[in-house]
Amino acid sequence: MEGAGEIRRGVAKPAVVQDVGNRRALRDIRNLVGEAPYACAIRKNKSGLHEHNTTCIARRPVTRKFAATLATKQQTSPQNERIGKENPEKKPESLLTSSNCLNICTDIEEDGTMVDEMEEMDQSGLKDVEMEDRILDSFPDIDSCDSNNPLAVVEYVEDIYSFYRKTEVTSCVSPDYMSQQFDINEKMRAILVDWLVEVHYKFELMDETLFLTVNIIDRFLARQTIVRKKLQLVGVTAMLLACKYEEVSVPVVQDLVLISDRAYTREEILEMLYLCEQEVLILNTLQFNMSVPTPYVFMRRFLKVAESDKKLELLSFFIIELCLVECKMLMFQPSLLAAAAIYTAQCTLQRCKCWNRTSEMHTTYSEDQLLECSRFMVDFHQNARTGKLTGVHRKYSSFKYGCTAKSEPAHFLLNADL
């Protein structure tokens, strides 16, 4: 057949290409076996054999180990093997001879210490990986118990929380944002949040709904000024939006009117919600960003790390809900708040400082980093019963929550050294 003996890039051309409609034969996409990975690395000589371009390859860093491997293996391309069979008198040249390898290494070493530096970098990289593997192996696998639970997403959980840590700053606001408001202040915000805690408890909503509600309120008030008459309406709307995002069953508008002690009419609440849907108020101000890492998502992960029981879990949530009421606690990131709440709860129950290496590794916070935040929490705990805002204390004083609020605060943390 005509053209059967012609060789182009190691593949025989077909004699006839059938014309099937508008289909055309695929072009050479340089994916053939033995094809040169770099255009300047190999070139053909007049005899059709491949010869090595030492000038071009010398620009690539070649270690002694790599050069010796190429020299001993004497790699040949399929094109040379085919030509060797057709013309046995001519022996295919090696892609890279030992003399060429020696010249390459000599040229690189004359120019500088590139080879040594590359070897040192490779060795240091391997040492770092080995060190990380040893560190991880020395800690218990907290997700092994959920290996058969598809909802635990064990394969991705570390990546998920790594993403949460990178993006949690987007959910934070300045602790002094109230200075931008002209008609409301921090005390009014505290009263609103304390009241919403009771509303949340009465409606038996999910824990994540409460944390998202407070986050929506803070992010909205940090960007939008309102009058005090509308503050409770903002809180009600924020809770309804959080319910739509987190809950399966959403409270009806008439229930919101009743819990507001009829301070707002059904029409006013619907008008507020309508404006939100029209991207004029809350959702427009927040740019529809409802997926933010609140302290709740970190609480769940860190409680698992701490191998918590029900008592530690309830006490940790009691402490962190006390922080929701206080505007100054906005100075701490959600992950730090969660870690400090669990640390404070552990100290409260065990009456001593305890923060093991496993908790420190998974939370990325040391005991010294948690101590400042923990002192605030102890102060809130000891004043929860006697203060003016007792919504959280009453909630956690019920039998449903194990009378957690009646536990003795960890006073010794107030005198601990930073």
Short description:
By secondary structure, the chain is mainly alpha-helical. The chain has helices at residues 54-57, 64-73, 78-86, 98-111, 114-137, 157-167, 186-202, 207-221, 231-246, 253-259, 266-277, 282-285, 295-305, 310-325, 334-350, 357-363, 367-383, 391-395, and strands at residues 7-8, 11-12, 42-44, 50-52.
Question: Could you describe the 3D structure shown?
Answer:
There is one protein chain. The chain is mainly α. It has three domains: about 35-110, no CATH class; about 165-285, Cyclin A, domain 1 (Orthogonal Bundle); about 295-415, Cyclin A, domain 1. About 50% of the residues lie in helices and about 0% in strands. The protein contains 18 helices and four strands. It has helices at about 55, 65-75, 80-85, 100-110, 115-135, 155-165, 185-200, 205-220, 230-245, 255-260, 265-275, 280-285, 295-305, 310-325, 335-350, 355-365, 365-385, 390-395, and strands at about 5-10, 10, 40-45, 50. The strands form two sheets. It has a two-stranded antiparallel ribbon with strand order 1-2. A hairpin with a 5-residue loop joins strand 3 and strand 4 (about 50). Helix 8 packs across helix 9 (about 230-245), helix 14 packs across helix 15 (about 335-350) and helix 14 (about 310-325) packs across helix 17. The chain is globular and about 80 Å long. The protein starts with 6 loop residues before the first strand and ends in a 23-residue tail after the last helix. Residues about 1-20, about 25-60, about 75-110 and about 275-280 have low confidence and may be disordered.
